[in-house]
Each structure stands twice: as structure tokens, then as C-alpha cells.
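Progress note, project year one: complex with flavin mononucleotide.
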Amino acid sequence: MPSTDQYDRIASDIRRPGVEPEDGVLNVRELIRHATLAASSHNTQPWKFHILQDSVSILPDFSRRCPVVDPEDSHLFKSLGCATENIVHAAAAQGFSADVRFTPGEDRVAVALYRDTAARVTDLYRAITRRQCAKTMYDGTSLGALELKKLEEAGAGRDVRTIMLLAEAQKEAVVDYVTRGNIAQLTDRAFRDELVAWIRFNPAEALRTGDGLSGRTTGQPALPTWLAKRMIGLALTPKRQAQTDAANIRSSAGVAVFVSTRDDKAAWVETGRSYERFALQATALDVRTAFINQPLETPSLRPAFESWLNLTGDHALLMVRFGHGPTAPFSLRRSIDDVILPE
Ligand SMILES: Cc1cc2nc3c(=O)[nH]c(=O)nc-3n(C[C@H](O)[C@H](O)[C@H](O)COP(=O)(O)O)c2cc1C
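Model obtained:
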């Protein structure tokens, strides 16, 4: 039975530092390894990569969709955006610039790569192997003005901006919306079943699939899957989840909402890119982030939440809390051979 030590060794090997390019030749497998370290909804890793002469295409893997929490595949396309952003920074580290285009009809993110003497290793590139969603409590301290400015700038993209909520009253309003989201989601049998199907209750199960929400990342004790599935009804209640989330939000320096002027596939990819950049910048600053998307995923709550944000026509697409706090054990990934399409 694989132990937590084996889990941690493999999680760390997946995140080994990048290799230097040899003789200016692009190492595409390294680009894809970095792409797969991106965030994805429920750690579904809903992507496939097609390597072409001077470009890489990122395509959706619809067999990994989550139809209950994400019926329109908006999180799925945001996840593709997260992977895209990592490729851009990993290419720069190898001396290549990237031109990113999303073709809605083909559901394809095409990343054209060309040599660029100005492209180089950046702090955001170095952060790719360390970025994580740290889902525990933070230490309650605030961020400095310069840190906040850097995060806000990193989160801005084409038609995407971040709204930074820092005041206690704003955080309390977010707590209230997240609580209502937890009640709506965790009293829905279909939502719970889908969520539980992506939870990996012990290192053996997580290592077997290389995906999903590993209990190790949130400090849950490892349990045999059959036992955990029987006990989950007691542990995963709206009340307990709301209490945990409330404490976590109150311990955070602030909340960032990613807002776009549009709500379509292209906007979802762009928003994923913005989140990933924000998270890489946060990692570079030693700041933690974790998603709290419940109000945006709950159709009955989203309009009220957007009105509370004073959005007129813009769309709230993602929400994260951020702050100073401890790192967490890392999540796993599938082998890159499983996500590269044959030529
Ligand atoms: C579009 C999107 C939506 C997500 N929604 C949530 C969420 O609502 N709650 C949560 O705890 N994590 C959420 N996550 C984070 C994933 O669980 C996380 O990225 C995944 O488990 C991999 O872990 P890592 O980001 O630490 O590598 C989301 C990630 C993405 C990209």
C-alpha cells in the first residue's frame, strides 16, 4: 500500500525544476509538463495537447467534464486557460515567445511559438512548480500596497479584471454568500455524488489515478475508500463546510473576484489565464490562494452576488481568497504521456 511518503515523493518529482534548453531547441515535453501543473476544477485535468511544428494546441477532454457543478463547461475552459498560461511562461524560459489564439468553433487554444531573444526565465515561470491551492487557514495578516498592486496587475487580462475585496464587511458578505452556496450545493444529491467521485481518500487511490481531490492536500487522514465513502455523509455537511469556509475566509487578507465583460468560451479561457497569472504572482510573493467559487457556481445566487458587486453587464467568473499562511502537501498529476495526442 503506497504511503504518504511515496505520495509526497511523486508529487515533488512531478514538480522538479525545469531543464535548460539544449542548443536553442525547444523542449516541448517540458512545456507540457509545466502546463499540466496548472490548476483545474476538481483536479480533473480536462486537457489534451497536440504538438505541431511550431505550436502546441490545448484541447478539451470532455470525458473529464463535471456536468453537475459545471453544466456549461465554463470551469473546464478556465482550466484550459490555466494550462495555457503556464505554457506561455515555460516557453519564455526557453527563449520563445507565444502567440495565443482561441478558436471557438474548434474548441482549440493554439499557442504559436517563435524564437525571441528578449524572452527569458521570470519569477512567474519559477513559481509554476510551487503554485498550489492552499485550502487551509491563513494567518490573518494584511498584504502591503505593493503586493496588492502586483496581484491586481497580474490578474488583469483581455476583457478581464479583478475586484479586490479587503474590508472586513466585504469579507463577511462573501462568507454569507459562500454559506448559502454550500447549503445549495451540499444538499443536492447529484452535486455530492459528483464531488465524492473526484475525492481520493488515500495515497494509493490518488497515485492510481493521478488526478482528483486528494485528502492529503487538505490534511484529511487517509482511509480505505469503502470506509471513507460510508463516513463522508457525516463529514461533508453544509454546516461543517460553511464553518470551515467562514473561518478560512476570515483568516485571509482578502478576496479577489475575476470579472469579465463576456461570458463565453473565449472569456473563460482568458479568465483561467488571469487566475493562473495571479496565482503565480502570489506564489512569487509567498502569498497563498484558494478558490471559493460556490456563489458563482449556484445559479440561484450568482445574479444577487453580481448585483452586490455592482456589476452592470460584467460577469463574475472566478473567486479566490488570498493571504499569508502555511503551504500544503501538493496535488498529483497524470503522466504527460496520457495527455499528449499522437501526431
Ligand atoms: C476553474 C477552476 C475552478 C475551481 N474551483 C474550486 C472550488 O470551487 N473550490 C476549491 O476548493 N478548489 C477549486 N479549484 C481548485 C482545484 O481543486 C485545484 O486546482 C486542483 O485540486 C489541483 O490542485 P492545485 O491547484 O493545488 O495544483 C478550482 C480550479 C479551477 C481551475
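The mean pLDDT is 96.
The pocket of flavin mononucleotide is lined by residues 39-43, 75, 78-79, 82, 132-133, 135, 213, 290-291, 293, 331 (CB under 6 Å).
No further modelling is planned for this target in the current period.
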